[in-house]
Amino acid sequence: MRNQPRRIRTPHHSDAGCAVAAASSDRACMETGYVVCTDVIGTHPGRRATVMEAIYPANEHERLHRLHSFGILDTPAEVSFDAITRLAAMALRAPIALINFIDETRQWCKSGWGMQPRPVPRGESLCAHALLTGDMLVIPDATEDERFRDHPQVVGEPKVVFYAGAVLKTSDGAGLGTLCAIDHEPHRLTDDERSALRTLANCAVTYLEGRLASKRLAEAQGRLETACHNRDEFLAMLAHELRAPLAPIHTAVEVLARPEATEAQRTWAQQILRRHVHYMSQIVDDLLSAALVSRGAVALTLEPVRLRDLVDRAVELSEAAVAKGVHSLTVDVDDTFYVDADTTQCPLIIAHLLKNAATYTPPGGRIDVSVQAGETEVALRVHDSGIGIAAADLEEVFELFRQTERSLARSPGGMGLGLTLARKLAALHGGTLVARSGGLGHGSEFTLTLRRAAPLAAPVIIESEDALTATPMSILVIDDNHDTADAIALYFELSGHETRVAYRAAEALAIVDNWVPDVVLSDIGLPDMDGYELVRAFRKLERLQATTFVAITGYADDRTAALEAGFDAHMPKPVDAGKLERFLIRHRARNRRSP
Predict the structure, then answer these.
(1) Any idea which architecture 303-453 has in CATH?
(2) Exposed e or buried b per residue across 156-178, where buried means at least 16 C-beta atoms within 10 angstroms of its C-beta
(3) CATH architecture type of domain 469-593
(4) What is the pTM of this model?
(5) Which of 264, 346, 489, 508 is most exposed, with minimal Cβ within 10 Å?
(6) Cβ neighbour number for residue 89 with a 10 Å cutoff
């Protein structure tokens, strides 16, 4: 039965009877792009209808996507296309030439020479048949062609006898429609005429593609100009944010240098220095984090964690910002909810949301943290009574180098990187972060959605910094910047640790010949040997197998290379010495517990 014609009822032309077509097999039907129709006696006595209907190309979805990308449908007439149809009519000595595009349901005419353009249902389109050839369809005499002699465009207007249609094929092979020529008399197409029709069809497509490329280039240029403008604004804001703390820092240093300053005044100056240096470090940390996240250089370790523990850690991290605004913070998060999260990065997401709420809420405002759990997801909401967000800015607040309702004259502080980082980190968790607001003056709400996890028998504990107990350590500090090395060493000395300093790799190797440090803090960019080579040399020494190695560098994206070289951890400059000390205490305590 494979070689028998397949018989299907045609859905069109019931008034002319159903079409007849012969095909050797189902495969032949697909290859020719036609539906074979049932043999039915038509309304004309003594003969059968002979219309063959076109089916959709195999790549129809991609073809339509490509067609719509040009934005050509339902546009006004254009001189460029009219010139092509006129040349086609002249080249083929035909009274009519058309540029037709085939969409989902119709044949739409962009340009017509010798005939008023009009839309045609796709099922009645000769050009739909030409489209299926992938090249060109030529019908010398449709009245004598049993496939088309009862076609509506043959028996009705425009009374086609001769038809030649060249496919408008893009550079990637998508057929958009045809450039066709029509005559009311039979016509034998010569090779030169075929070539001319194909060339003119290619000209039409080349014009289309060139125009689309120009449009996309203009759009890209517009985006680039916007990005440059945003960058310039960002750099101006960055300069402002970094310059602002310098005045109190300079004054505090002068106070400390005055011998007549009282102890209370010295304490005040120290607090000023600590607060503003911490603020500047946060700005630099956010910039480095933004660079790492944008490059996909942040690796997460997802594990089931109690959501309340993540929120509590975030509250610790944002405590200063909330307290500064004298805000009322309410946390309503059940202890029973668990999520798949990274215990280091996820609290940062929530902390950024809390800091954002504190920054854009007037003093004495309210910040509420709540949760809603579904079967597979948990939604954490941070709602504030702050200045709100305009509807047009709800997405822009997450863009890098974009700030809403900001100016150099009125800045609530910070670089506006927090929300950018929060959304990117949420995506790395497989979650989402969206903003909602009733508009300016009506507060805002940020919703973080994370995957829900089953509770653990022994839940992951996120240690509070206050829970750490210091143990004296021996620490080797290696940095060719003398001030940096000496300052870090002095801090750890004052904390009760034994320290030694090396300004070159060779000095460090000489020191460990007769002294075994618990910790080595090393810069990467050393003058005589880079930090990667140095740590590999250290790792070869049996006596240093229990030593913890930490890379301290100004290049935030060195992390992967540092860990691969043999460092246990990586910290970008500027280093928060207190944070570094707490990390070392935790890291070495964990190693002591490990078998």
Answers:
(1) 2-Layer Sandwich (3.30)
(2) eebebbbbbbbbbbbeeebbbbb
(3) 3-Layer(aba) Sandwich (3.40)
(4) 0.52
(5) 264
(6) 21
